[in-house]
Amino acid sequence: MRPTDTLQSVPLRRPVRLTLVGLPLGARRRLAELGLRTGATVEVVHRTAGGGRVVAVAGSRIALDRETARGMQVLGEQEVPVV
């Protein structure tokens, strides 16, 4: 995956790590409360007809609209360096 890939472009059932949540502060805070924050491992489990995504994170499923999914940059799990 490229560093500029977003949740919108991730194939189903492929674990990825969030590298940047490029959304307004209020949206970032709410998503962080739900477990979607930089460094979190997520997996797209469903694509909606309108272009949204349902993602699995920390045992929960969260539905995201298309624009929110586009604002979240990711890297494939195998590409993330272990610190």
Could you characterize the architecture of this molecule?
- Residues 25-74 form the Ferrous iron transporter FeoA-like domain.
- GO terms for molecular function: transition metal ion binding.
- The chain has 83 residues and is an alpha+beta fold.
- It has a single domain (7-79), classed as SH3 type barrels (Roll), CATH 2.30.30.
- It has helices at 25-33, 66-70, and strands at residues 15-21, 41-47, 53-57, 60-64, 72-76.
- The protein has a 5-stranded antiparallel β-sheet.
- A hairpin with a 5-residue loop joins strand 2 and strand 3.
- It is globular and about 25 Å long.
Shape: globular
Tell me the number of strands. 5
Secondary-structure class: alpha+beta
CATH fold name: SH3 type barrels
Query: CATH homologous superfamily - what is it?
Result: Ferrous iron transport protein A (FeoA)
InterPro entries: Fe-transptr_FeoA-like (IPR007167), FeoA_core_dom (IPR038157), Transcriptional_repressor_C (IPR008988)
Keywords: Iron
Protein name: Ferrous iron transport protein A
GO molecular function: transition metal ion binding
